[in-house]
Amino acid sequence: MSLAGVDKSRIGRASYWNREVVPRLTAASDGEWVRGDEVRRRLKLTTCELAHLRESGALPFQKNGNAFLYHLNDVKPDRS
Q: Is 51 exposed, middle or buried (0-12, 13-18, 19+ CB in 10 A)?
């Protein structure tokens, strides 16, 4: 991502991030992202089990503020 045309004096402000940066990141990502509660429901996991999968690298994620987001294509429902 290029910094051309970016007002560097405003980079640290939350309003700048919410208006300029987050939409670019969202637009750049392909597919749908879901929050942890949706992943836990689909995979029938506890919060602790989800954290262990995330920490071990078994389930790729992206952190947005305090929320962990998971790519929907990586979430496979439990068929058992």
A: middle
Q: Using alpha carbons, select from 25, 26, 24, 38 the residue that is nearest to residue 70.
A: 38
| Residue 50 banded pLDDT, cuts 50, 70, 90 | very high
Q: Which helix (H) or strand (E) holds 26?
A: helix 22-28
3-state secondary structure of 14: helix
Residue 47 reports pLDDT greater than 90: yes
- Structure-token pair, residue 37: 């509660």
pLDDT tens digit string along 7-32? 666 656 677 666 766 666 555 455 68
Q: Give the whole-angstrom CA distance, residue 32 versus residue 50.
A: 19
Provide the phi-psi class of 75: left if phi over 0, else alpha when psi is between -120 and 50, else beta.
beta
